[in-house]
Amino acid sequence: MKTKVKEIFTSIQGEGPYIGYKQVFVRFCGCNLSCKYCDTEFDSDDAKEYSAKELAEIINLNNDCHSVSLTGGEPLLNIEFLKELLPLIKLPVYLETNATLSSNLKEIINYIDFIAADIKLPSCTGVKGLLEKHDKFFENSKGKNVFAKIVFDSNITEEEINSACRLGRKYDIELILQPKMNGTTSVIDKDFMEQTLNLFLSQYKNVRLIPQVHKFLNIR
Questions:
Q1: Where do the domains of the chain lie, and which CATH numbers do they carry?
Q2: Cβ atoms of residues 27 and 12 within 8 Å
Q3: What is d(CA 72, CA 151) in angstroms, rounded to the nearest whole number?
Q4: Residues whose CB is less than 8 angstroms from the CB of residue 169 and which lie 6 or more positions away in sequence, other chains included
Q5: What is the DSSP letter of 47?
Q6: Radius of gyration (Cα) for the chain, nearest Å?
Q7: Would you write out the chain's pLDDT as a tens digit for each of its 220 residues?
Q8: pTM (two decimals)
């Protein structure tokens, strides 16, 4: 079995609580969502096909890395390939996911060490009806090092804040608020960022506001 990979590269993690750790990134092609703010190229143009053995050999050369980040697109779309790949990987596995494919996660959860899972807000993504899918996903993530990333802009609603905090409390996960960016510039001002953070903190204390640091550093 082979699958298409858009790119493989090493860099530092620029989002969430693991900022600054060196990782080897494997970007899979394809996604099951179409978020308005997505700034990632994950189509299959110029992608290269790898077998599980070929890809694992490349990943395992990077023994100075904290972990391997499986990103995309949506990595969990490649579940059959991942079931072959993950037992071959020597590095800790850091899964970046849109948190909608809970049954796929369940099939490989024993090979995952860290989970960076999105909570998709309709006001920012343009995608509705994902809350129940996120709930099931976090249910299947129990026992892992998991946090939720929440991209937001000035359209965020009170109900979205309430729903995200309910998920945080229910599963005792850290919520990382990530201001929507236009290049290296936030689309919202600092006062609105602080106001939004305080609204979250009024309901749930395990919340941090962290921008996309790699964009400020001009690295991938």
A1: 2-153 (3.20.20.70)
A2: no
A3: 16
A4: 203, 204
A5: -
A6: 17
A7: 899 999 999 999 999 999 999 999 999 999 888 777 666 666 667 899 999 999 999 999 999 999 999 999 899 999 999 999 999 999 999 999 999 999 999 999 999 999 999 999 999 998 899 999 999 999 999 999 999 999 999 999 999 999 999 999 999 999 999 999 877 778 899 999 999 999 999 999 999 999 988 777 777 7
A8: 0.94
